[in-house]
Specification:
single chain; 9% strand; 43% helix; mainly alpha
Amino acid sequence: MNLVQITPGAGGMFCGNCFRDNALVRALRQAGHPTLMVTLYLPMTLEDQDQSAGNPIFFSGVNVYLDQRSALFRKGPAWLHRLLASRRVLTWAARRAAKTRAADVGDLTL
């Protein structure tokens, strides 16, 4: 049986869920279980080896944010969405993604 662990990926913030999920996947792999770790929005900031390394990020956090904020962006060309979903752009965004004002991110939770 193959296992998949889905984790949010909190960008530049240290995320308790990300630490826990990363440790769980590492332990499952050490026990011999084939396990895939999927990050949803942004690359993770970890002190340990990233167990999701080499796997694509499922949703681009940049695209999700811009889709929510701009109707014009939702109708943008596919190449722009692919560019903003690249690992390089997401890593750049992750270093700057430490917003905690509920008014700024509340719509994204709905």
